[in-house]
Amino acid sequence: MINRITRKGKFIWQAYKTFVHSAIHQPDSEEGVKDISYWREIFFTNCILYSLPFSLIAFVPSVIITYERGLSAIPVVSFLTLFSVIFICLNRRFSLLFRKAFVVTLLYALGIFLTIYFGDFGIGTIFILAVSVFIALLFRSEVVYGSVLLNFVIYGFLAAEIKFGWFSWAVNRYDPAMWIVYTSNFLFLNTIIIVQIRNVIGGLENTLMHEQQLLVDLQTEIEDKVKRNEQLKESETHYKSLFLLNPSPMWIYNVDTLQFLQVNEAATLRYGYTEEEFLSMSIKDIRSNEKIEELQKILQLSLRTNTSSQNITQHRTKDGKQFYVEVICNPIKFKGKHARLVITRNIHAQIEYTRAIQRQNNKLQNIAYIQSHVVRAPLARILGLTQLIKDEPGHESRDPELINYLDTSVKELDDIVKSIISNTEDILPEEHPTIINPLSINEGKI
Question: What is the pTM of this model?
Fold first, then answer.
């Protein structure tokens, strides 16, 4: 039975709480941003939430007792105050600022009325002090200190009323001197309380503003971090496209140790090593010569100058097959280490083709030499002999047709030899600009 009543009471309280919050509290549109205005609104909502049911503690006995004693004004004022607060505060047609101002004004009027009606410093002063605290928690500094000034005006006016007796109020029974004693202490206490509340609220407001700024900065930092992560992902995508998925063999190696730091798939396919094998090796393991000291000197020089290099050298695969490659190196930082990014191009076929052309050129040079020095020498002697025969006295007795035919044939042969020599010289320039000279390959670099 008790549990059932408890559950019913919790249900009723929760329904009432939801109703009051929905009628007064305006949810903030920005989640996570709760400034001092938000907490003032929550404070006002909670004040109304708890004041309405707990006000019955004072409302019921005061109405009954004052009515029985013939103080009919007190029940009327109590009813008007309670229902005015309910009607105005729970009516969403009025702005929140208006509802706050209405409650403050109503409580001020109630405090002044009780002081004048009962002619007592106690109960009315409690209401006015409560209103001052209420204002300090709900409004800005200008309004708060205005309420303190208003209290000085109210109690100063009542002191003048007691002194001069303009109206027939019950408060006139006080001695002016004692009233000043009471009110001065009250106003002192009121001022101290309000000032301290304002200091606390001001500190809280500054803290909330600081936290709000930190939240904004954090959100900005998070957005920047998200952008950086997106850029990093984009960079990683480009890296995979440009390095890992590049059809040309590429790798990164440590300048100090010559150890491979990273290789792409094309390198593993071309050289026959797995990625794990590559990362346990150095560039010395794929070179076909042993000029490592010279290589390290070149690397240190390029590291100091921070320049790129391009050259041709000879590499070997896992099965020992050697081939020529064109190597392009660029200095980079890789995981905090001085490294070199290398891209290679297999030019072995081009080198072999160039060498074949060189061999053919050498043969043509030999042919040209033979033509110009070996063949043409006896030919020149034959030309001389035919000329001697023609110049010898009595050559008319010989067959002139035979002599002329021999002379013509020898000259034609001489012209052919000269043409061969000339054509050979035309196709054998000293240096062709588009052909790689295999003799100029520098195998001391990588």
Answer: 0.52
